[in-house]
Specification:
GO terms for molecular function: iron-sulfur cluster binding. With 98 residues, the chain is an alpha+beta fold. It has helices at residues 21-27, 60-65, 68-73, and strands at 2-5, 10-13, 45-50, 75-77, 90-94. Strands 2-1-5-3-4 form a five-stranded mixed β-sheet. The protein starts with a strand and ends with a strand.
């Protein structure tokens, strides 16, 4: 299961391998901030409190937009965080900078 918490909406959805956290949020109508969907705006920044191991590795776009400390704390760009095959529990909260 993936728990998605947007600004005002919350959803628990089945993980779909190959889809990003952002695409899950859009598909299930969670109000998740985003503008570009390609890792440049960072409005989809999120805090992943559980299940980072079920997401693909950090992309070049994320290295360009986030600080190394943010990765250590559990932050990702939802548009770049793609769910792996066999994913189990993932908990993500939309945490844009502003």
């Amino acid at each position: 299961m993936i728990e998605l918490r947007g600004r005002t909406k919350f959803a628990v959805v089945e993980p779909e391998p190959g889809l990003s956290i952002l695409k899950h949020a859009i598909k299930y109508k969670v109000d998740w901030g985003h503008m570009c969907k390609k890792g440049t705006c960072a409005k989809c920044r999120c805090f992943v409190s559980e299940g980072n191991e079920y997401l693909d590795g950090i992309t070049d776009e994320e290295w360009d937009r986030l600080e190394p400390e943010e990765f250590e704390q559990g932050y990702r760009l939802a548009c770049q965080a793609v769910v792996k095959q066999g994913a189990q529990r993932i908990v993500a909260v939309n945490k844009p900078y502003f």
